[in-house]
Amino acid sequence: MTAIADPRAPHAPARRKGPNLEKWGWIYMRASGVLLVVLIFGHLFVNLMLGEGIHGIDFAFVAGKFASPFWQWWDVLMLWLALIHGANGMRTIVNDYVTHPTTRRVLVWALWLAAAFLIVLGTLVVFTFDPCLGFDADTASDVIVSICA
């Protein structure tokens, strides 16, 4: 009896030495997915259900949240996990559908570079956010005045 090869798998790849990165990527996707559900629903609950709901979200609301290290780290953790989770998922799709090795390598590198750039940029925005730039006490809301005074 002849066995039929799996789709897009003309031959079984040889087992490499060292850590099994595909296994750790699979584990990361499950763990980060669970953690992201908690972080995202917490984020949505605080932003949409507490206080004035969606009508209360403005510059002062964001400034008030980013004045707290707890919310800075909450948002940064959500950012890091989501970007790495998404890049790893896209890497899996590229590996499944791009057959040319050089093209695959270029696309995977581009994915990780884009994710790294967005992680660095987003982290800088969260931790260097200063609501007091261009602060005008006459037109600012009470939250901004209390933060910048």
Fold and architecture overview:
The chain has helices at residues 21-49, 59-66, 69-97, 101-128, 142-148. With 149 residues, it is an all-alpha fold. The protein has one domain: Fumarate reductase/succinate dehydrogenase, transmembrane subunit (3 helical TM bundles of succinate and fumarate reductases), CATH 1.20.1300. Helix 3 (69-97) runs antiparallel to helix 4. The protein starts with 20 loop residues before the first helix and ends with a helix. The model has no long low-confidence stretch (mean pLDDT 85).
Q: Short description, anyone?
A:
The protein is mainly α. It has one domain: Fumarate reductase/succinate dehydrogenase, transmembrane subunit (3 helical TM bundles of succinate and fumarate reductases, Up-down Bundle). The chain has five helices and no strands.
What tags apply to this protein structure?
149 residues; mainly alpha; 3 helical TM bundles of succinate and fumarate reductases; 5 helices; 0% strand; elongated
Q: What is the end-to-end distance?
A: 81 Å
Number of helices: 5
Count every beta strand, where a strand is a DSSP E run of 2 or more residues. Answer: 0
Supply the CATH architecture.
Answer: Up-down Bundle
Structural class: mainly alpha
In angstroms, what is the radius of gyration?
22 Å
In CATH terms, what is the fold-level topology?
3 helical TM bundles of succinate and fumarate reductases
Shape: elongated
Low-confidence stretches: none
Q: State the name of the first-level CATH class.
A: Mainly Alpha
